[in-house]
Write a structure and sequence with these properties.
Helix 5 runs antiparallel to helix 6 and helix 8 crosses helix 9 (238-250). The protein has a domain at 5-168 and 202-212: Ribonuclease Z/Hydroxyacylglutathione hydrolase-like (Metallo-beta-lactamase, Chain A), CATH 3.60.15. Strand 3 (24-28), helix 1 (34-41) and strand 4 (45-50) form a beta-alpha-beta unit. It has nine helices and 14 strands. The chain has a six-stranded mixed β-sheet with strand order 1-2-3-4-5-6. Strands 7-8-9-10-13-14 form a six-stranded mixed β-sheet. The protein has a two-stranded antiparallel ribbon with strand order 11-12. It is α/β, with parallel strands linked by helices. The structure holds zinc ion (ZN) and fe (iii) ion (FE). The site of fe (iii) ion has 6 residues, from helix 2.
Length: 254
Amino acid sequence: MPFPTALPALSDNYIWTLAEAGADAIIVDPGEAEPVLAAMRQGLRPRAILVTHHHHDHTDAVATLAERCGATVYAPDDARIAGEFVPVREGDRIEMAGLDLRVMEVPGHTRSHVAYIGEGLAFTGDTLFSLGCGRLFEGTPAQMFDSLERLAALPPETRVCCAHEYTLANASFALTVEPGNPALAERAAQARAARAAGLPTLPISMDSERKTNPFLRCREPRLAARVAEYAGCDPADAVAVFTALRRWKDGFAG
Ligand code: ZN
Ligand code: FE
């Protein structure tokens, strides 16, 4: 199985690269050119550029890099994404550089956000973060909840490749919500050690996320009761719990 590499970019973005054999690669969400150009100087040959959503920190270097390496760009069909690209929709397959990925529409952070799934990986952009999820800029809480549930239903061994290094900040909120979750305490300690060593906290397995990410745990009775106690929502209504949890996090100072 090809192993994904996270190229740090901007303040806390990751540009993911994935190569099956040799140096032919796909890259995901290049918001900055230089990290990719540096990898290209080491032999990386991007054949495809995948875009999860239109935000500039995911797209600013797409046109520059596409021209430099002749890569095909795949992106959701959204007029806010500049340049030439192949528009993708739910279920589309991208076979490139010996890799096989499919498109999953995951609206919520933005209305046209997609994830790319395959090779045991999930490139989740700003939809699913480790121990957190994206802010709701355009979608409804119900849409985001549904998108996250579909991602969480991927095989447990799926390795999640998020577009930002937010794990430690997310951990402090997650621990506030679920202070008694041992898997979460363990993940937070592991993430602290990784960051102290200058390493990414990603990828992380979906199995770990299901056990630790509060936004994937809205059906857990203890978490639901805690959120209901905080927000006064119905603990049996998972979408209401998710909505309250997302709002709680929006106002959380850490
Ligand atoms: Zn975004
Ligand atoms: Fe972003």
